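Thread title: Can someone regenerate the structure for this chain?

I was given the following input by a collaborator and told the matching structure tokens would be attached. They weren't. Posting the sequence so someone can regenerate them.
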Amino acid sequence: MYASREDIGYDFGDDSKVGSKPIKPNPNIDGGWAWMIVLSSFLVHILIMGSQMALGILNMEWLEEFNQSRGLTAWVSSLSMGITLIVGPFIGLFISMCGCRKTAIIGGILNALGWILSAYASNVHYLFLTFGVTAGVGSGMVYLPAVVMVGQYFQKRRALAQGLSTTGTGFGAFLMTALLKYLCTEFGWRNTMFIQGAISLNLCVCGALMRPLSPKDVSEKCVVRSNSEDNHAKALSHSAESTKSNGVFSEEPEKKEEATNEEVLDSVQHTEIGGKSRSRKNMYGLRVLKTVSQLTVTVRKGFAIWYSSYFGAASLFTNRVFVAFIIWALFAYSSFVIPFIHLPEIVKQYNLSSQNNIFPLTSIIAIVHIFGKVILGIISDLPCISTWNVFLTANFTLVTCILSLPLLRTYVSLAVVCALIGFSSGYFSLMPVVTEDLVGTKHLANAYGIIICANGISALLGPPFAGWIYDITDKYDFSFYICGLLYMVGIIFLLIQPCIQKKQPGEKSTEEAQV
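Best answer:
Regenerated them for you:
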């Protein structure tokens, strides 16, 4: 099953008003082609997130090639990772206009172009543009559709599906590290960039697999959810009421706009029919005009949806829980990234390098992280378990580990805490599920784009902040304490919202039982 939106006390009002009519289940929801979407998303995580986690190999090559400072050179990989997430809100605009499939295919081409152009780099600043910006934007254009499509195709097994697809990050970290190391040794880093660019073109294949659901399929999915949620959606927050009353997402303006657009297209079609007696040149001009008109209508409609999601009266920001979720995301991701960056130095300070070389602590985090995503996804899909409660429990576990990490001095104790960090950080696979519960499937692309943008800011600024604290105190202890406390502030923001309602274990509505 799934954690419905009443668990967190918010309904964005995008579900259609449907009675309890029997619905024939769609074979592509929770089955059939849905598992091809999971495979596509899994490969995207390998090629994008896995490659970014393996950039340390290329970073060493760039240091040797360009003889620049470590700080300046590190900004290349930081830009690539940060921009991939920060561009999320703008990628939501592309998805609204073009759909997930076209956006992902264009992103795959752009990502490959960034890798290939980087092979001609003459300095680090050139890499800022080609690899940091070009490849980073391309990665973002593929990553967000990969997450959104899994959310669209799954209803009862959303958490498990997201968990399986995001495990590609862990597998990719191992595979791409070994691949880049081998390619750099055999062919040099410039040829490696060419080869990796060719490999990245497989992102276009992954995008082609993202077959969009028909409007009928989407409506059926919304009906199934509404049947199990409507009876429990009475205690909504003031923001939800204002959303429904303002009605920016209501159907009447959309119908009027569609009617106007149809009139324009019909007039073009009649003109084209009447022009059959004209020359072939005029017919070609009419077809071009019709294509431009259709494209203009699509762009206007997509931009209207995107703009109303962010700036309209029924903006996503009127959802107080969602705003608290954004604040949480600003602090959360850095608490996961910082141990990866600074643990090796901490191990060196504690004279544990010999043990860490046998089995690195960062490898423990990465391996257990894979299992954490799948196991937390399975637990969240249980009928008597709320995804929201699993999400919060994992967050509390992670922040406790982050705060206790500086207090440990032995390899065994550090290994245990690192294993807990890896497992509890598996909640990343629940983030799209929680976001969808907050705003609904219709607004998932725009909403999750904001969340990963906040994660990108956290990933971009967190590690330099930790390094700055180290420069002042000559210890990493305060870096973990400050980041852990900020992380705790984000969790508290999630807890204090008055519209959060906890679902009792085992509680199911009559409609849920029927479904």
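The chain has a mean pLDDT of 75.
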